[in-house]
C-alpha cells in the first residue's frame, strides 16, 4: 500500500493551515490525514484478480487484441497497465477500468509479456495498492502468415492475377490436359479444340490443369548482407522470410512439394521438399537471424543442386558487382538443371532519394549515389540473367507476391 499524490497535497494543505491555527489543531489534522490514508489504503488492499486475454501466437507486424480485465466492483478506481517488452508495441499500454489494446510484435521467435498490473485507489483517493496478474505470458511470433493466407485465398478465388499471363481459372494456365468443355468468352484462343468443335458443331475448349508434384526449394541467405535494415523494425532477412512463407503456402495450394535451406557460411537448417510443407517451412525459418559473416553460395547451391529438376528461389541481397561476385559465379551450379529465381528486396532509402525533390546539395549527392548503387544492382541482375536465372527485385511489401507471380509464370510455361 502506498499513499497517492492526493495524500501529499492534503499534508501540504495541513502545513499551510498550521501557520494560522494552534499546533495542537495542526497535529490533529495531520493525524486525521494519516489515519484516513491508512484506512483508504486498507480498503484498496482488498483482493483483486487481474485477467489477461491474448493469443498465444502472433504474426510479425500484424496487430492482435490484448484485453486486461479485473473483477473490481468500482472500475473507475482501477488503473490497468501492461509493460512493453523489446520489439513489442502495445497501444495503449495504460487504461482505466480495463485495458483493451492492440499488440504488435516485430521480431520473430519467442517473446515474453511481463505480468499485467492493476493499481486500485481507495474511496478517498488517499491510498492505493498494486496487484500483479497471473504471471508472464509466452507468445510465439510467426512470420506474416496472415498475408500469405490472404494471398492463397485470392489465388483460390481467381482474384490474384499475373499481368504477364492470360490465366484460365483461379490458378493460371496449366499444360496437363484434363478434359474438353464448351468454349467460354474468357478462354484463350489457344485452348480451342478444333477437331472437337467441328464434331460438336459449336466451339469447344481444352481444359488444362496446373502440374502438381513439383519441387520448390527456397534458399534463404542469412549472412551479413541480409542484416541491413529496411525500416525501424525490419531487416532484409525479415522481408525474405515473409516472402518464403508466401511461396510455401502457395506451393501447398498448388499441390507442389516445398522445402527450405537457411545458410550463411554454413548450412544452418535444412528441410527437404515435402507435400503440404508450408507449416514445416515456417517452423524451420521461424528463428532465422542474420549473422555477421559472408554467405557461401557455392556450398548452399551444391547442397540443393542434386536431385530432379526443381524450382529454386534464392533470397539474398544484390548490392554491387564485388559483393555479388560469388553469387554470380555459383549460379550456374543450379541453372544447369533447375529453374532458378533470385529474389531481392529493394532498398526504400535508394528509392526515396530518387523520388524526393532535392532541396540542398546533400540531397543531390544522395540522389547521385542512389543512381550509382541502382545501376550496380541492375548490372548484377543482368549477369544473373545471362547465367540463366530470373531476377525478382521488389519493394518490401511486394516481394512475396512478385515471387509468387514468377513461380506461377514458370508453371504456366511448363518450365518446372
List its salient traits.
six-stranded mixed sheet; Immunoglobulin-like; 416 residues; five-stranded antiparallel sheet; Rossmann fold
Please provide a written account of the structure.
This protein is an alpha/beta fold. It folds into three domains: 141 residues, Immunoglobulins (Immunoglobulin-like), CATH 2.60.40.10; 210 residues, Rossmann fold (3-Layer(aba) Sandwich); 51 residues, no CATH class. Helix content is 36%, strand content 26%. The protein has a six-stranded mixed sheet with strand order 17-16-15-18-19-20, with helices on both faces. The chain has a five-stranded antiparallel sheet with strand order 1-11-10-5-7. Helix 1 packs antiparallel against helix 2 and helix 3 runs parallel beside helix 5. The radius of gyration is 31 Å and the shape is elongated.
* Main sheet: strand order: 17-16-15-18-19-20
Give the number of helices: 12
Our measurement of the CA-to-CA distance between the termini, rounded to an integer number of angstroms, reads 70 Å
Would you give the CATH topology of the largest domain? Answer: Rossmann fold
* Outline: elongated
Radius of gyration (Å): 31 Å
Task: Briefly note the structural class of the backbone.
Answer: alpha/beta
**CATH homologous superfamily label of the largest domain:** von Willebrand factor, type A domain
Mean pLDDT: 86
**Main sheet summary:** 6 strands, mixed
Task: Estimate the strand proportion.
Answer: 25-35%
Number of separate strands: 20
Share of helix, binned: 25-40%
Q: Low-confidence segments, ≥5 residues, pLDDT <50?
A: 164-173
The tally of structural domains comes to 3
**CATH arch. level architecture of the largest domain:** 3-Layer(aba) Sandwich
